[in-house]
Amino acid sequence: MSFQRTRYTCLKSFHDFPCSHRQWKHPGHCRFVHGYSRSFSFWFASERLDNNGFVVDFSSLKLLEEKLKEQFDHTFLINVDDPLISDWQKLHDAGALNLRIMENVGMESSSKLIWNWANSLLLDVDKGRSCCFRTESRENEHNSAFYEKFPSWFETSSKTVS
Q: How many domains does the chain divide into?
């Protein structure tokens, strides 16, 4: 007989991080520098609520919000393999832009990046009681990408919870 475990879930969103980027390999207009006001959402899960009755205490996410601001607030994002990287670095050094170099600046990769950040924080704060199982990176009201995965440490730790 199989059964499903019950999980509590909640959602936290952070909005309006204006930044620009380019997908230099794209054959169309995405290869040009363009910008959005990015927003991010995090879905959290736990089988047990904390002492306050929360899946995640949102006040414990201040470090996550700071990482989002540092990476995406008034920044220029480029891929690590951008052929103009030295030119962008010169503009950064001259104070013309606030450069961030990423593996990939796309929404899909951004969703995976922030998923990792959230789970690193939660593992430290909650010791495996809660996790982030889904993230959304939104560039505008029409376009967003998700990353979904339960971290292995959450699945392992939740099996041993009594």
A: 1
Nearest Cα neighbor of 130 from 161, 84, 94 is: 161
Q: What is the dihedral of CA 141, 142, 145, 148, to 10 degrees?
A: 70
| Residue 51 located in a structural domain | yes
Share of the chain above pLDDT 70, in %: 92
Give tens-digit pLDDT for 25-72.
999 999 999 999 999 999 999 999 999 999 999 999 999 999 999 999
Is the distance from CB of 129 to CB of 48 less than 8 angstroms? yes
How far is it, in rounded angstroms, from Cα 51 to Cα 99?
Answer: 41
> What pLDDT was estimated at residue 1?
44
Residue 100 near residue 89 (C-beta atoms within 8 A): no
User: In which domain, by residue range, is 55 found?
Assistant: 8-160
| Residue 2 maps to a domain | no
Q: What is the CATH number of the domain that holds 125?
A: 3.30.479.10
The answer to whether residue 81 sits within a structural domain is yes
